[in-house]
Fold this sequence. Notes:
This protein has 146 residues and is mostly helical. The protein is built from six helices and no strands.
Amino acid sequence: MKKLWDFGWGMYKKHEEGINYLIFGFLAFVLNYILYFLFADTIAMHYMAATVLSWVLTVVFAYWTNRTFVFKSGNKERASVVREFVSFIGARVATEVLEIALMYVMVDLCSMNDKISKLICQVLVILANYVLSKIWIFKDASKKAE
């Protein structure tokens, strides 16, 4: 049993960033989806408004988890943190515009179910967000944390 644990822990440590991104990306996905259903179905909000509002709340959660647990940013200087936050928000705005455009195409133009469309969009957005975070936003964070 110890060998299995050691193997599993070794694999986790070797791929910690990617695994943590998947875990917290999944949690952000769940949060986004729950909020979307809450706003769209419970409050009967238009699907576009529900998409935007669920996004805003999820981005706050995602910034904190990405900074703290995924990329483990060691940036402490005010200017660095502000740059990181502004870059994060900018990237998330870009991927949200992508999501809104895709939702419009899938729901309004192609008459797809909005819940299935939301699922497809979330997968694409999570992938795009990881790439942008890795190569642009937190690219120097891991070096400073060491």
